[in-house]
Write a structure and sequence with these properties.
The protein has 5 helices and 7 strands. It is of the alpha/beta class. The strands form 2 sheets. The chain has a 4-stranded mixed sheet with strand order 4-7-6-5. A 3-stranded mixed sheet has the order 1-2-3. The longest helix has 14 residues, at about 55-65. The relative contact order is 0.15.
Length: about 160
């Protein structure tokens, strides 16, 4: 019989299709796991509506559950939007270690554009806060491009969503 802990461990092995240094669990898209009588229901929320990796994530989750010997039921939940606050501390460190600046915690009092344009974003390479926004449009809707004036490295900044 498959346990909930085994399912969470298996899901923690699935890399995000766009940023493989972080797992779906560390990214915080897996919301709930329920195990009953050989069936495993997983609820997950993509990072944004219309995510091009939605099917890839759904298939990977189902494959990992089948590998445990259980029947998967995968529910895509769109009733509550994903937030960067759902990224685990371990996930934030994996992002930083691989050259991505993790998102700042959400601040209801500060508008997103102010957060993006501020110099409070730490360079993932040297730790400097002397960084600037190069382009608000990164390779995906949740990332922007920044540049560090200290070490002169470009890096991607996760937008606070």
């Amino acid at each position: 019989m498959v346990t909930e802990a085994q399912v969470w461990d298996a899901l923690a092995e699935i890399p995000d299709p766009e940023i493989p240094v972080i797992s779906l669990v560390d990214l915080g898209v897996v919301r709930h796991v329920d195990v009953k009588e050989g069936r495993v229901r997983v609820d997950f929320t993509p990072t944004f509506l219309g995510c091009p990796a939605l099917e890839v994530m759904r298939d990977a989750i189902a494959d990992h559950i089948r590998a445990l010997g259980a029947e998967p039921q995968i529910n895509v939940c769109l009733d509550d939007s994903w937030s960067t606050d759902r990224i685990t501390p371990a996930g934030r460190e994996k992002l930083r270690a691989s050259g991505f600046a993790p998102p700042a915690p959400r601040d209801a009092a500060a508008p997103t554009l102010v957060q993006l344009q501020g110099n409070a974003h730490r360079c993932p390479y040297c730790g400097s806060t002397d960084t600037r926004l190069e382009n608000i449009f990164g390779p995906t809707p949740c990332r922007s491009l920044r540049h560090c004036a200290t070490c002169r490295q470009p890096f991607e900044q996760f937008k606070t969503i």
